Amino acid sequence: METNLLIDKIIEGIQDVKGHAVKVVDLRSLTERIADAFVICEGSSTTQVSAIADNVTEYVRKETGEKPWSVQGRENAEWVAFDYGNVLVHVFLPEARAFYDLEHLWADAEIREIKDVDDL
Question: How many domains does the chain have?
């Protein structure tokens, strides 16, 4: 699956259930990377984090036929991560996102902020 199309569909799935503070960390310019990109977002509660994760998985499957290779963190829903091979998706509670600060860890990559649906 083409990376940019997959990222677009992931973002649409996040925005469909009002996930917010979406950022795309494009790792393709880095020589040592674990994927082409991260899509990072947050939900305001564990219920919303779970809903975002479920919706992205279902939305991407319907739109592209792609399924995640693995999903981690559904049990506590503070940080749900799923792997599409070339794109990793991270859905956080705000506190967990601040603690792990993935954007800072990959600060040498291109980071693009996506406007929240309510701000469009």
Answer: 1
CATH of the domain at 39: 3.30.460.10
Contacts of 71 by beta carbon, 8 Å cutoff, 6+ apart: 53, 57, 80, 81, 82, 83
Say how far apart CA 30 and CA 10 lie, in whole Å. 22
Q: How far apart are CA 96 and CA 45, in angstroms?
A: 11
- From the list 5, 3, 12, 14, the residue with the least C-alpha distance to 91 is 14
Segment 29-85, tens digit of pLDDT: 998 888 999 999 999 999 999 999 999 999 999 999 999 999 999 999 999 999 999
Structural domain including 44 reads 3-119
